[in-house]
Amino acid sequence: MAFTEQHLTELFRQLPASDQLTLLAFGEFLASRGSSGAVVPVKEAVVIADPVVIERPPGESIVAALKRLSKTYPMLDKTKTLGATSDLVATNIMQGADPVEVIDQLEGIFRSLYEKLKSGDHE
């Protein structure tokens, strides 16, 4: 990678998300001008919202945790979250597992799905 590309990448990573989008828009503007004046098509930036911080209440049930996590991560596809959590919930409810441990695992699943979405891994 050329020094200028590396430097630009380092600067980009240091910026908050809103400024990254501004830098990206400016780069797309410059690219669209091109040296010949031809307009270059550019991709539209997708902004993924930050999770909504909702504290875990004491004594929370597994079902209540699922509702809270769905509200915390409204940007996640409900089908994917159901698929990723249903076996865990069913198994642990049937086995009488400690709800706190199950909720910890559910939070990890939701966080992982969110990180995949943020990174562009939509599979």
Mind explaining what this structure looks like?
By secondary structure, the chain is an all-alpha fold. The chain has 2 domains: 1-47, no CATH class; 62-119, no CATH class. 64% of the residues lie in helices and 0% in strands. It has 5 helices and no strands. It has helices at residues 3-14, 17-33, 62-72, 78-95, 99-119. Helix 3 runs parallel beside helix 5. The radius of gyration is 21 Å and the shape is elongated.
List keywords for this structure.
5 helices, 123 residues, 64% helix, mainly alpha, 2 domains, single chain, 0% strand
Question: How many extended strands?
Answer: 0
Helix content percent band: 55-70%
Overall shape: elongated
Q: What can be said about the biggest beta sheet?
A: none
Total of helices: 5
Topology:
Blueprint: H1 3-14, H2 17-33, H3 62-72, H4 78-95, H5 99-119
Helix pairs in contact: 3-5, 4-5
